[in-house]
């Protein structure tokens, strides 16, 4: 197995070579996920678990994340060239609801350099904002309900009912 073409000498050479290998690893992760999806689809349920998943050099949770990351990445909501290099980060992106994914896109979060920790922190901050948004929405709905109650009362009085 060839790992490095020429031994790097300068910092930028190390970065270049490591980045090249990491991109290759990303492709391998997605291919592994694709193969896991195919095995799961093609093999009987018990056979997949016993003969494939149980014998792999990683956990069933990792297998699940690889499958889901590949399914999401190959499904195309985000172009491949903009996807992060880590299957676990791609998996976390796959769990975002469409409005959150759209927000992540608009904020420029989805990019090859995206780190898993950065995505987790972004989700935490968004979740912290959610209660305030829910309180605001509840206040608007109550105000709207009060307006509708007044309108209903006015109409009922007008109709004599």
Number of helices: 6
Shape: elongated
Distance between the first and last residues' Cα: 86 Å
Average pLDDT over all residues:
87
Number of domains: 2
Describe the structure.
It is a single chain. With 161 residues, this protein is mainly alpha-helical. The chain is 73% helix and 0% strand. The protein folds into two domains: 11-114, no CATH class; 129-161. It is elongated and about 90 Å long. The mean pLDDT is 87.
Question: What are the salient characteristics of this protein?
Answer:
0% strand; 161 residues; 73% helix
Write the layout of secondary structure elements.
Elements: H1 11-42, H2 45-52, H3 60-75, H4 87-94, H5 98-106, H6 116-159
Helix pairs in contact: 1-3, 3-4
Brief description of this entry?
By secondary structure, the chain is mainly α. Helices cover 73% and strands 0% of the residues. The termini are far apart.
């Amino acid at each position: 197995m060839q790992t490095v073409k020429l031994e790097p000498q300068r910092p930028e050479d190390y970065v270049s070579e490591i980045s090249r290998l990491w991109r290759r690893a990303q492709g391998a992760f997605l291919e592994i996920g694709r193969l896991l999806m195919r095995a799961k689809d093609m093999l009987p349920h018990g056979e997949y678990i016993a003969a494939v998943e149980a014998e792999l050099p990683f956990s069933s949770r990792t297998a699940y994340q690889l499958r889901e990351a590949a399914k999401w990445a190959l499904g195309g909501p985000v172009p491949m060239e903009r996807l992060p290099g880590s299957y676990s980060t791609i998996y976390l992106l796959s769990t975002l609801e469409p409005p959150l994914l759209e927000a992540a896109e608009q904020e420029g979060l989805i990019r090859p350099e995206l780190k898993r920790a950065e995505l987790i922190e972004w989700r935490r901050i968004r979740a912290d904002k959610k209660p305030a948004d829910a309180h605001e929405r509840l206040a608007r709905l109550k105000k709207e309900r009060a307006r509708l109650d007044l309108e209903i009362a006015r109409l009922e009085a007008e109709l004599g009912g």
